[in-house]
Amino acid sequence: MRPTTAPGSPALGSPVHRSEGREKVTGAARYAAEHTPRASAYAWPVPATVARGRVTAIDDTAAVALPGVIGVLTPYNAPRLGRSDDPTLRLLQDLRVPHRGWYVALAVADTLEGARAAAAHVRIDYETEPHDVTLRVDHPSAYTPEEANGGHPAHRERGDADAALAAAAVRVDCAYSVPPLHNHPMEPHAATADRDARSGHLTVHDSSQGAGVVRSELAGLFELPEEDITVVSEHVGGGFGSKGTPRAHVVLAVMAALHYGRPVKLSLPRGQLPATVGHRAPTLHRVRLGARDDGTLTALTHEVTTHTSRVREFVEQAAVPARIMYAVPDSRTTHRAVALDVPTPSWMRAPGEAPGMYALESAMDELADALGMDPVELRVRNEPATEPDSGRPFSSRHLVECLREGAERFGWSDRRTPHREGPLRIGSGVAAATYPVLVAPSTARAHALPDGGYLVEVNATDIGTGARTVLAQVAADALRVPLDAVTVAVGHTGLPAAPLAGGSSGTASWGWAVHDACDALAARLERRHGPLPDGGLSASADTTGSVAQKSPYSRHAFGAHFAEVAVDTVTGEVRVRRMLGVFAAGHILNPTTARSQFKGGMVMGLGMALTEHSTMDPAFGDFVERDLASYHVPAHADVPPIEAHWIDEHDKHLNPMGSKGIGEIGIVGAAAAIGNAVSRATGRRMRELPLTPDRVLTALEEPDSRSTA
Question: What is the model's pTM?
Fold first, then answer.
């Protein structure tokens, strides 16, 4: 007979603390670098010190003479690698140096200290070539790619935007700049590789957002059957996109382990991360808006110029959000890229949406100023009935409700007027947010055990979001059993295949498969009479067919950010006093973990607005801010009281749980709300992030720079 939920059992949608929380705070949870097989060796990579060129000679004599050094792998002696669609992983295969920081050698020793010392003793000669690392809008090598990241067309045009702009009663024409940004997860990128001497089976513990993707890549590179490789990513200390695809550390660790016949551990030093694990590419924006006197938009153009590397093309899709946000009859959105001698950019929380919505929502604020209109009302005035670019209906869209509720909770009508408190200027700002609903095929397996418990297996990855807990809630809800009766196993390629944790798609993808597997198991239990067999009873699910059905709906999450700032006119320091967000992201499955995700994104948006940036040195071709001493992520003292609220949507066009992704929408629009608040407080519009004291003081000395075109 089918079980029923026990009285008081937490249902889906209830606040539940993380199931692995105790393991993490007591140190019992083991991360990739905390697995130490017997006779383990240690590796330390050697990055190139020139911006472009080729290696002409490598002298490892002094390195291998050090005590405990096992060897040094270089392009001259490293094993040859097999196929890969990712050229950033074809390491130590040739002598070229495409950018500073590209790995040109790997030292291996009995101890971590020995490997680091050996790496420092490797002497490398280079033949340098002229390099170019400077992005600018008028770069002669700028081109329009076929696609931006995510498969989006790089260029889209509806109507005649230029003519509509020329005819508009009110216009703004604004240029914005977002610098390179770095992910910097707490846990470093690390891997432990161990190949069994008898069976030849390779086991890799990797800090990754997707163990299955890592296994597939390793199989191709090292020409091994996938069934001979196990990748484990049981606990991952953050990634923010930088661990979304296999990175150099896991390839080098496996290469060394196979070559020297010993387990090898490799943990990348933080200073090397910007050059090796991706970054948010800098983006230069030009946004033009045209409107009638009543605020109705008539024209929009959003042009983005960004850099990519010469190794692999990656184009930040920053103009894409403008295609779905507001009702506007004539628009043009386009991306241009410049291939430079820089590390390959990659995913960082809300790629595209984070920088793109900063520019668009700042421009909307400038238009509100030009119109003399409340910026909340301007956004409401331009709410579309269907998706502007495609004409498809929205599965659900409650942006107006988010704006209205946020304004009420924030006290917008009383706070929108700036005022002074001695040397402090106080102002408030608002911005909208959006993020697409993404779902990937997944499989899962559910077991009813003879002891009365339930085991759910899925190769999901919990990167600190609470995936284990939410998946257990999905399972308990489908099985109608108490939550504490369910155990969830994740992060292992021996489990049913599942997509990586990225694009705010994890819970929607894995949860769908878990729901279907548990629903099938519950049906089997309902039909069964008598005790379970010794091995229990199982059911599996594969959502490939369901996910493949193209939805006729435009599916997105939306939100609204409000921020209050205090700007010190003496020091130029900006302090955010309060942040508030209201989101419409489907059915919230766990308020406790969801609020944590929303707030985490908002904190990242605060860093984007005020403290985080990286500088590409044109002479040396290197990121100047390479560690947490110079790249300033927000610390506790920087973070004000943050409120995260939501409208619980009931959207039947998503998945069985009715959920949308929540991991990324919190950062989208947050920087714009803060920037708009600073503009309102100071009467000056600063269009280059971050809003550091030097830029604020410079702006305060200049005439009012707010756009009134």
Answer: 0.96
Give the pLDDT score at 639.
97
Architecture of the domain whose range is 440-546: 2-Layer Sandwich (3.30)
Q: What is the number of residues in the chain?
A: 709
pLDDT at 10: 62
Assess whether pLDDT exceeds 80 at residue 446: yes
Hey, which residues are catalytic here? 664
Quick one: CA dihedral 587, 662, 550, 392, positive or negative? Answer: positive
* Domain range summary for the chain, segments of one domain joined by +: 37-130+183-276, 147-181+279-437+555-701, 440-546
Mean pLDDT (whole number) for 568-573 = 98
Count of beta carbons in the 10 Å neighbourhood of residue 216:
16
CATH topology agreement for domains 147-181+279-437+555-701 and 440-546: yes
CB 93 within 8 A of CB 79: no
Write the CATH number of the domain with boundaries 147-181+279-437+555-701. 3.30.365.10
**Helical axes 591-610 vs 670-682, angle rounded to 10°:** 50
**Per-residue model confidence as pLDDT tens digits over 468-527:** 999 999 999 999 999 999 999 999 999 999 999 999 999 999 999 999 999 999 999 999
Round to whole Å and give the CA distance between 490 and 466: 12
CA triplet 481, 482, 485: central angle to 5 degrees? Answer: 95
Query: What architecture is domain 37-130+183-276?
Result: 2-Layer Sandwich (3.30)
Short-list 144, 138, 122, 136, CA closest to 49: 122
Task: Report how far residue 399's alpha carbon sits from residue 700's, in angstroms, rounded to the nearest whole number.
Answer: 34
Q: What is the mean pLDDT of the chain?
A: 96
